[in-house]
């Protein structure tokens, strides 16, 4: 086999700096949210308010990862919904199993 | 859509049911990756919601954090369990190391998205460069996790005095060091079991991801995608890698913050 010329045969498009800037901006947002969570873990009293805040920030981060990094926001609407609508069912599972867990708590400790 | 999608020739030789068209304007590979990820979302969601459920079935530690001692009577405060960093012995650095791990994984997700962006432009040099950074990030994360597990299993200097039922079904009271599947010095047995199972399953995904990243890195470097005419494989493995990051974001919140 001959040594291949190690050059792209495809037409290389030059960098679009706006797009790359947007990626870095999203990264900064993700890191800022994580840093905020880190600070909150040590400064705020533990309790339901803090936990709800943590969950809200986590879902906010998840939104950035799915929409920007995984480019789900750029897909057609039916594809977006076919991913997001099934996930919405999980909220019911969360409610049911937290209720179940707290009932076990009551049975076990009272 | 069009701004981000990779151009893939739809062959007229393939029929409508043989991949000859693009439902939802996404290629076959990307669509199937999304459906696989959706099923994986459910798997991880089941694990994490189980964690929540078992978590609320135990009382939380109520006293001041400075006087915390591990016990299987209540759930521990995570920042007091995960408070060690490598190479520095006996320093109380709560959550610093897992914070660093999170940072590494998010950073590798960023370099991955840059590789995907370079793939859209057919820029082999940039793809190879960013894939390599992503690969390094993934391997670093796995190494950190290995250290984290090692530390968790071996435990602290003092351990904790616990009363529990041992493997011979005897009720014993003794000092326990570290964690195994039967008992651990930090909290109820479920605490360590869930930690091993969920972070282990995530780590398994990262391991598979690193292998796939290496394959794509190698193929990009030797020009397979140039000959194929598109860099869609980078995009597909990118979806998987971001998903691993996505799961870690939830693992971080549930295990280390709440």
Structure notes:
The complex is a heterodimer of chains A (110) and B (258). Chain A is mainly α. Chain A is built from four helices and no strands. In chain A, 74% of the residues lie in helices and 0% in strands. With 258 residues, chain B is mainly α. In chain B, strands 1-2 form a two-stranded antiparallel ribbon. In chain B, α3 packs antiparallel against α4, α4 runs antiparallel to α5 and α5 packs antiparallel against α7. The radius of gyration of chain B is 23 Å and the shape is elongated. Chains A and B meet through α1, α2, α3 and α4 of A and α1, α3 and α7 of B.
Q: What pattern of helices and strands is seen along the backbone of chain B?
A: HHHHEEHHH
Instruction: Please summarize the sheet with the most strands of chain B.
Output: 2 strands, antiparallel
Query: Helicity level of chain B, as a percent range?
Result: 55-70%
Shape verdict of chain B: elongated
Q: How many strands in all of chain A? A: 0
Rg of chain B from C-alpha positions? 23 Å
Short description:
The complex is a heterodimer of chains A (110) and B (258). Chain A has helices at residues 17-43, 48-69, 77-88, 90-109.
Lay out the secondary structure:
The complex is a heterodimer of chains A (110) and B (258).
Chain A: H1 17-43, H2 48-69, H3 77-88, H4 90-109
Chain B: H1 28-56, H2 78-81, H3 96-120, H4 124-154, E1 160-165, E2 171-176, H5 189-221, H6 224-228, H7 232-257
Antiparallel strand pairs in B: 1-2
Primary descriptors:
heterodimer, A: 110 residues, mainly alpha, 2 domains, 4 helices, B: 258 residues, Four Helix Bundle (Hemerythrin (Met), subunit A), two-stranded antiparallel sheet, 2 strands, 59% helix, 5% strand, disordered N terminus
């Amino acid at each position: 086999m001959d040594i291949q010329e190690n050059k792209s045969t495809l037409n290389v498009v030059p960098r679009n700096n706006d797009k790359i800037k947007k990626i870095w901006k999203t990264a900064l947002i993700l890191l800022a949210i994580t840093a905020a969570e880190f600070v909150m873990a040590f400064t705020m009293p533990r309790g339901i308010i803090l936990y709800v805040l943590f969950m809200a920030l986590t879902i906010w981060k998840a939104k950035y990862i799915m929409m920007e990094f995984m480019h789900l926001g750029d897909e057609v609407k039916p594809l977006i919904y076919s991913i997001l609508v099934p996930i919405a069912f999980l909220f019911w599972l969360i409610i049911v199993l937290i209720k179940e867990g707290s009932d076990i708590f009551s049975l076990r400790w009272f | 859509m069009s701004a981000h999608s990779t151009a893939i020739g739809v062959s007229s030789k393939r029929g409508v049911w043989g991949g000859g068209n693009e439902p939802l304007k996404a290629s076959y590979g990307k669509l199937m990756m999304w459906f696989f990820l959706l099923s994986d979302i459910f798997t991880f969601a089941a694990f994490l919601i189980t964690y929540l459920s078992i978590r609320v079935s135990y009382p939380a530690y109520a006293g001041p954090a400075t006087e915390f001692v591990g016990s299987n009577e209540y759930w521990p405060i995570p920042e007091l369990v995960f408070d060690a960093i490598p190479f520095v012995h006996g320093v109380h650095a709560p959550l610093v190391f897992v914070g660093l791990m999170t940072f590494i994984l998010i950073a590798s997700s960023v370099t991955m998205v840059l590789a995907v962006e370079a793939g859209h432009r057919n820029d082999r040099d940039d793809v190879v460069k960013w894939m390599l950074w992503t690969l390094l990030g993934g391997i670093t994360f796995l190494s950190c996790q290995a250290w984290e597990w090692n530390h968790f299993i071996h435990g602290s200097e003092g351990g904790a005095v616990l009363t529990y039922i041992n493997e011979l079904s005897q009720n014993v009271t003794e000092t326990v060091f570290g964690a195994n599947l039967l008992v651990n010095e930090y909290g109820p047995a479920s605490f360590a079991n869930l930690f091993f199972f969920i972070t282990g399953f995530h780590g398994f995904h990262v391991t598979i991801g690193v292998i796939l990243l290496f394959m794509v890195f190698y193929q990009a470097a030797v020009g397979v995608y140039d000959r194929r005419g598109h860099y869609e494989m980078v995009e597909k493995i990118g979806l998987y890698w971001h998903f691993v990051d996505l799961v870690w974001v939830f693992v971080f919140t549930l295990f280390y913050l709440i």
